[in-house]
Amino acid sequence: MRVNRVEIDGRIASHQGLRHTPAGMPSFQLQFLHASMQYEAGRERKVECEIEALAFGEVAANLARQSPESNLTLIGFLERKGMRSSIPILHVTEFKIIKE
Amino acid sequence: MDNPESPRPCKYIPTDYAQITLTSAANLSLDPQPTSVVQVALDTPLERLFDYRIPAGQTVTSADVGRRVRVPFGPHRKIGVLVALGDSGSVAQEKLKMLDEVDRALPPLPADIMNLARFAAGYYQHPFGQTLLALLPPALKRPRFRTPAPQACRLTEAGRLHWNGLPERAHAQRRLGQRLARGPVAMSALGDLRGPLREWLKRGFAEAVHLLPEPGPCVSRPELTRAQQVALEQVMGASEGFKAWLLHGVTGSGKTEVYLRLIEETLALGRQVLVLAPEIHLTPQLTERFRQRFPERHLVCQHSGLADGPRLAAWLDCAEGRADLVLGTRLSVFTPMPRLGLLIVDEEHDPAYKQMEGLRYHARDVAVWRARQAGIPILLGSATPALESWRNAQSGRYGLISLPDRAHAEATLPDIQRVDSRTDRPRQGLTGTLIQALAENLARGEQSLVFINRRGYAPTLYCQQCGHISDCPRCSAHQVLHRQGHGYELRCHHCGLAARPPQVCPACGNPDLRPFGQGTQKVEEALAQQFPSARLLRIDRDTASRRGAFDDMRRRITDREVDILIGTQIIAKGHDFPMLTLVGIVGADQALMSPDFRAGERLFAQLMQVAGRAGRAAHQGRVLIQTDYPNHPLYATLAAHDYPAFAARTLRERRDAEFPPFTHQALLRAESASLETALDFLGRARALGAPLAGPAILYDPVAASMARISNWERAQLLVQCRDRRALQAFLATWVPGLREITSRQVRWHLDVDPLEF
Question: Who contacts B29 (Cβ-Cβ below 8 Å, separation ≥6)?
């Protein structure tokens, strides 16, 4: 298995502020709010969801500077939240700002 | 008295040290017999004395036994102690080397101290020479004899003449003369005049004197409580001579006042008193009380925090009989005191009395032996006596004195409550109940203490994804995360190795490494977030290690510059903080899981002591223990302030499991680069000992619970016996043989009455 890639548009709904790991690496954890129209079973439908995302390093520092109004595209992979959890969390490895 | 007619190879000092006859300056000065060969104890791992010839023209008599000598040893010069006259016969006389010099500037070690060293060396199976040299202050172990620097000096007649005849331009000397003409001056008060003074001392214009401290104001004695009165009558009513007393008094019951009264009585008889305290940090507070009560007495403090000069001065004050009252940590149990009349061991249960390296003695036990030899009473005081002492008191070997109530009429014992942390889940280590209580205390303007016996930020750095924990590469222990400036540092509390936290998990690459668990720094941080306006003070070894730092903290607490204290056991011992009314205990459960059979006893003592900090004066104290096991019997007896019940239950368990104090133990520890080598040595040691063991049981060699420290693999072999004498007899025959089977790859030592496994 190699593929684990997620790409999703939305905006930052809430976050815990920029933190640092004990080694001094920036980390940024956020709730990401997504809303769009998608095709499913031959029809268009409305999609709305909120997912948890996490970024480290430079990406984290840059994400922390984005205003809650800006629309972003997050790109990254899924990983379980913790050793004893099966719920996935999105690890953001890059993001783009969507120009209107 | 010397015994040169039975020369025999003295490779090992026989356990019956009495065979090497002890001579002392005191009982032989009438009949000094010159000798040509002497036996000298040296600081070497060899279990023997060394013979030296006396240089022509020098006379050494029995009055010199106990004096320091300088001798050639291999390519070096060593300091030794002259132990006996006459040769041991191990080396032909003509092959012997000459000793350099006998130090006659200092008094010889008295016979009782030499005997004490013999006892300690024999009992703890440590080479006699190393033992004897270990109890000298460091300044006396340097290979150059120097007359100790005077503490104070005064003008001599010759000095007065010299001063009067000084020319105008000799400004410094004239100023010095003026100072000295007014009376004796302490060296410390002379500042830049110390240079010219040294010259004057050399030329005989000034001479050393001993200054007694200026008497301060005397503090009046408080009324004794009924229990204190009874305690005093018990001790003073006893017949003269040796008697060991166990003073069991709840925290705040006024044990110190009982000490003070007994000291007063003893000093009045012209005798000296030695008081042992477990911690160097405790000595200033006790010193203060003693000084206030006995302002006209010469009080001396002895602990390893003193610089070499003052330490030597203090030692000489004791040894030459000038000091009346000596207060010190465990090492002072060996201080010569010619007029010793009373020994007091405060907080006698404290594990700090056990030396963990070199001569692994227990200062309380040595103190009891010393009191017995000296024929004087000894008082062991504690709120939670060691089970060994408690059993001795129960069986009648020690007299038991109880102070069951607090001394302040209004002061009651603190209310100890258990907070069930299974339902009241802690956040950042603190339960809602504790936060609430802290907030109330803050609002009332009273002080609180949060006790957590873990320094650092968090005990582990943990990868949430794979469970990896940062371990010390050299020890079998987790690295502890510490806050360091603005960042973090991983430190090993066993070998001291410090490292930067890794960027990503070394096992899975995840950067999200999290601190796991609580240390003092993290609790401090959590409290700062919770109570932004509260004034916090953290006291642990990291903040209190600087000289004077601890005193400064104590002052800030008593001056009410602190609202919430966060501290480890360093704060738990014996300090009086009258405004402290709330104690929160975090993370105590861990000791309940320990495989060490003494963990429960230590936890009980520690928690009792911490709890005792609350409400010592007029304020009712409250103690909250956060625990997942609120029904554990240890916490139940603690909440009831019932040490006797705790002791009874624990002693029953110990008896059923055949643990001390019902058996006696010795632990042979071996360290090597590989565990196999260490175990192999212990296996051979066991084979050697098995036929000699008698009633003693030699268990299988096993890896130590801390299996590796600083890349040394550690293993141990436990010897256990119901009969202390039989154990001692076995050790005496076994240990010399161990020196034969040892190899370069292994280092080992024997710990008699070990406290840690």
Answer: B62, B63
